[in-house]
Amino acid sequence: RVDAGGKLPDSIPHHSPRILRVALPTPLRRLFDYRPLREPPACGWQPGLRVRVPFGRRQMVGVVVECIDSSDLPPDRLKPVEACLDATPLPEDWLWLCRFTARYYQHSLGDTLHQALPVLLRQGRPLAGRMRERWQALPPSAEAEARLARAPRQAELLAMLRQHHHGLPTQAVLAQSFSREQLLALVDKGLVERLLDPLTAAETGAGRLLAEPALPLNREQAQALATVHERLEAFHPCLLHGVTGSGKTEVYLQLIEAVVARDRQALLLVPEIGLTPQTLARFRQRFRVPVVALHSGLTDHERLDAWEAAASGRAPIIIGTRSAIFTPLARPGVIIVDEEHDGSFKQQEGLRYHARDLAVTRAKHHAIPLLLGSATPSLESLYHAERGNYRHLRLTRRASRHAPARLELIDLRGRPRQGGLIPPAIEAIRETLAAGHQVLIFINRRGFAPTLACHACGWLADCDHCDARMTLHRQPPMLACHHCDKRRPVPDACPSCGSADLRPLGSGTERTEETLAALFPKVPVHRIDRDSTRRRDAFEHMLGQVRRGEPCLLVGTQMLAKGHHLPHVTLVVVVNADGGLYASDFRALEHSAQLLIQVAGRAGRASHPGRVLVQTLHTDDPHLRMLAQQGYDTLAEQLLAERRAAALPPYRFLALLRLESPKEEAASALGGEAAAMLRHWVAAHAPDVSCLGPVPAPMERRQNRYHLQLMLSSARRSQLHAACAQLTAWLEASPEARRVRWSLDVDPQTL
Ligand code: ADP
Ligand code: ZN
Ligand code: ZN
Q1: Contacts for 706 with CB less than 8 Å, ≥ 6 apart
Q2: Pairing, β 611-616 against β 407-411
Q3: Phi and psi dihedrals of 474, rounded to 5?
Q4: N or C: more exposed end of the chain, with fewer CB within 10 A?
Q5: Is there a contact between 699 and 674 (Cβ–Cβ < 8 Å)?
Q6: Does ligand 1 come within 6 angstroms of the Cβ of 563?
Q7: Which positions bind Zn(2+) 2 (predicted)?
Q8: Was 454 annotated as part of a binding site?
Q9: What's the rounded mean pLDDT across residues 661-673?
């Protein structure tokens, strides 16, 4: 057994190692030994080379991570590598990051490498194969040209190439009825050079960097930029803490400009919802150099091109969502994480990494600045800023005239609701529309109603597979579980008592949309949620209409709340703010405060001041009042104090073992054994680690499987990691663990 992350790779090329240690895409946290090919690759055997190897009855593509001379197995029992797929190793910075990630998140290195590669590279596609041939005339040489006397076509071809400063691609030459043989003959004679260009050829170096001038910065922006700029050659983490609309993006743009002007690359991570054509357009408008975007809409080929462009250094600016953190960079210059508090930076399944946290590690490794931007920073980042680990840069002023709107709490209790809205909210909507402005109604629930209820017997539409209610949808009509995606037709009569008095309970986006359409028949109502925007272009089309500014109503979930610039919205109504107030998850309050502030930030971005109405059953809730009256920063201070008192992150580190099985007993037996083993082990080896559970997960039954969890916590990273390593090793060796699905989540975002 090999500790997959323990040793640093031997980076010296090794021409004749006896054994190659290969990481393969399996969940097993170990490496596999193979014999090298008799002929080593031209670069010598090195970590980072992809190889094709036999594995069981299959073949797999793996990555060499060590070249060594002895194995636990005798060399004659080792199978040989079938082929080496690379002429040179995959980028070192990429391999380093993957090794770190696998070790930190206690994940299989082979699977980590696999996930961090574009699909085509996983499949063994060559890296250098995607090139365009170009033929360029070399400086004239009388001697060489003399040899063309008896080859008039070659002379013509040379003359043609000389007219093209940057040479011609093969296609263009063939199109003029010249042949490849003629081209190669000219190469042989030393008159023409054959060049290979990647498909995403960058028109860099063509003079000016900017396509439009940068904005003159205000004092705070200038100061923030200057602080980062002070030390572009060192690890230099900064938190850019600025209210929505305070010009953070402008700071990113100018920082990127400075970095690219020094011929370095900038990597910008944005939340999943934030990588809109609008965001990209803003960056592409500013720069003349290519801006490469990495998002889920790319084809495999486009993704590989982008990866190569970043790895080779041709792409100076790379913008991507979470997984873009694994993009190799030839000349890293800065990493920026926009909306650093956003939950989408954490991958919630498989390799459970946090892209923001990896960004910190990566910037440190490269010794470059790191900029984390947010209007509502995560408590983790605020904590680091307070301790001086990060520079705390503040932008308090909005570029537009108006300060961000205050939250006005309005009491839901004892008031009639229509589509979830109470009379004062409806009145405010009416006034805003009459003034010719737009209104955003935020409701964190898609579908028509959270569930269907029988008024005769109290029956509720429960999911058969989960401890959850099924959501009622009207477009199209069905009951759907948002946890397991199970669907059923809407019953005509109560399945329990036969009564026909079935009524929707509560409101979702569809119902609010319907109500508003009835209340304001002359005003267009746009609903924006996952159901209404399955087609991205439909979404952009609708936003385009909204940006033209006619009065309209926007009803949406957080899809709408995040990132979109909606200059004509002057009223925001939050249908229900109570979801996160009394949730069991310790981060729920933080996340719902961030979301409320973000939603509120949609109001009054342009020339008109905004108003934000927040409907709640808990107008007296101290946290909600603090948020409304004193703002996010004060609440965040308070929440940090509570976290400290409760010994929760960021004051302590957590890891969560999740167990699930169709059989409750199987999961709880394994959980119990694991906990007993772990308690025994930590007592001797990691006394600071405490172990809680196993306890049922918040939704114990989901998709007909029982979910349990075991929580580890420690103020010491090293001890927590040692305990996690012990736990995963024990589970991998345990025969019972084969019948129970388990996963370990280091730094879980939700419990
Ligand atoms: P944030 O990213 O903090 O939400 P943006 O960078 O998107 O803020 O800026 C909000 C608006 O203010 C944008 O329309 C932007 O063009 C404008 N803006 C930003 N900085 C300046 C500046 N220094 N001068 C004038 N307008 C600015
Ligand atoms: Zn009934
Ligand atoms: Zn379900």
Answers
A1: 660, 661, 662, 663, 664, 667, 668, 696, 700
A2: parallel
A3: -110, -25
A4: N
A5: no
A6: no
A7: 463, 466, 481, 484
A8: yes
A9: 92
Beta-carbon-side half-sphere exposure of residue 746 (alpha carbons within 13 Å): 24
How would you classify the pairing of strands 291-294 and 131-137?
A: unpaired
User: CB–CB of 375/307 below 8 Å?
Assistant: no
Confirm or reject: Cβ of 221 under 6 Å from ligand 1. Answer: yes
Is-contact 196 131, C-beta < 8 A?
yes
Nearest to 130 by CA among 307, 313, 291, 290: 307
Q: What does residue 669 show for φ and ψ, rounded to 5 degrees? A: -65, -45
Question: Is 552 marked within a binding site?
Answer: no
The CA angle 492-497-499, to the nearest 5 degrees, is 45
CB neighbours of residue 181 within 10 Å: 9
Among the atoms of ligand 1, which is closest to the Cα of residue 217? 23
Mean pLDDT of 629-645: 96
Query: Do the Cβ atoms of 202 and 171 come closer than 8 Å?
Result: no
Say how many Å lie between the CA of residue 702 and the centre of ligand 3.
6
Triad 49, 50, 55: Cα angle to 5°: 135
238 is in an annotated binding site: no
Q: Is the peptide bond before 424 cis (omega within 30 degrees of 0)?
A: no
Q: Is 524 exposed, middle or buried (0-12, 13-18, 19+ CB in 10 A)?
A: middle
Closest ligand relative to 480 C-alpha: 3
Beta-carbon count within 10 A of 196 CB: 10
pLDDT at 2 > cutoff 50 = no
Contacts of residues 693-697 at CB distance under 8 Å and 24 or more positions apart, as own/partner, are: 694/659, 694/667, 694/668, 697/658
End-to-end CA distance of the chain: 32
Q: What is the strand order of the sheet 653-661 is part of?
A: 690-702, 705-714, 653-661, 741-746
Crossing angle between the packed helical segments 248-261 and 277-286, to the nearest 10 degrees: 50
pLDDT on residue 519: 95
Whether the pLDDT of residue 265 is over 70: the answer is: yes
Which of the two residues, 38 and 225, has the higher pLDDT score?
225
Check if the beta carbon of residue 736 is closer than 8 Å to that of residue 667: no
Q: What distance in angstroms lies between residue 453's CA and the mean position of ligand 2's atoms?
A: 8
Reference 132, options 166, 94, 86; nearest CA is 166
Residue 640 CA to residue 565 CA, distance in Å, equals 30
* Residue 189 Cβ contacting ligand 1 at under 6 Å: no
Cα 522 to its chain centre, rounded Å, is 40
Distance 282 CA to ligand 1 centre (A): 11
pLDDT tens digit string along 727-736? 999 999 998 8
Instruction: Write the pLDDT tens digit of every residue in 121-180.
Output: 999 988 864 556 788 998 888 887 888 888 889 999 999 999 888 888 777 888 788 888
Q: How confident is the model at residue 9 (pLDDT cuts 50, 70, 90)?
A: very low
What pLDDT, on a 0 to 100 scale, did the predictor assign at position 585?
85
Closest CA to 244 of 491, 497, 595, 581: 595
* 411-438: b (≥16 Cβ within 10 Å) or e: ebeeeebbbbbbeebbebbeebbeeebb
Question: Which DSSP category does 224 fall into?
Answer: H
